[in-house]
Input
Amino acid sequence: QLTGTPVPQTLMGLGNFPASAPASLAMLGMHGTVTANYAIDRADLLLSFGVRFDDRVTGKLEAFAQHATIVHIDVDPAEIGKNKHAHISLCADIRASLAGLNDVLRKQNFQPNYGDWMDELAKDKAAHPMRYPERDDCIVPQWAIQVLHEETKGEAIVSTGVGQHQMWAAQWYGLDYPRSWLTSGGLGSMGFGLPSALGAAVAFDGKDGRPKRIVVDIDGDGSFLMNCQELATICVEELDVKMMILNNQHLGMVVQWEDRFYKANRAHTYLGRRESEWHETQEIKDIYPDFVKMAESCGVKGERVIRKEDLRPAIRRMLDTEGPYLLDVMVPHIEHVLPMIPGGGSFKDIITEGDGTDTY
Output
């Protein structure tokens, strides 16, 4: 903010800089925005604060920020120089480091002029906006997350499992506040969303002087199944957790890789009954498992939504209901998380088009 420097963020850093700020380039990396990755590719100076340079951010290491002088500050000495060489490195707390750096800039009356650079990035952003297909025959998962953002005014604490829903939440929820994002980025642990939401709900339950905040677990059907027993904990401990499952009846991210790189050969990535697939029959009896009945068996209210026009009212009911609530949102399994830089690739390999109906 002091210098007007454009700011891309890693998956784990979302919310530390407002997504709605003019200088925000949103997330970078494998499923980051085209403009964030373009900025990294073109930059001559990269200020890297509290980052790990993991492979989902860098892709091909030698091509990542290849024109930039890299400054790396991290509190963990193991991260310094581990993956990407930094020209200037400092093992320190970011809070103290940034405060000191800002003091120096103010004393020197530093007034950078990044006008041409910001204009270049604005043109790239206009040429490559984040988008998804507009459909009336089904609920597009990206749109569902946008509606949740609108109905919560972007003020919820959001947790996720791991997979497509995780990346869509990172792309489309628009986090403006720190300490509002709970996701697994190191181990990438499916099932992380629900138990982490429980912890947040305890910390922000509005009791005994604690603040009250909405806590929403945006999950996938595959990830939710990993720790669905926590529905019992939610009921017994009376925790106000909202759960929105983007249910495509598949292990969505694996399906996307199968589509893109393995000629759509399926390796046990369909999670429903073998004899009948809901996406083909469109019969409610073929949705498997029944998450609404699962929730109700544990004493948690729930409902399923299939039609686009029913989504917003259903989300509103979920948020207005006192106590825990599970919303099972049926979405198509053909959607791909885009943009995408293939593993081991670089910015020049970025993919911005296509879904599961295409042949690759």
The CA atoms of residues 85 and 326 lie 45 Å apart. The radius of gyration is 21 Å.
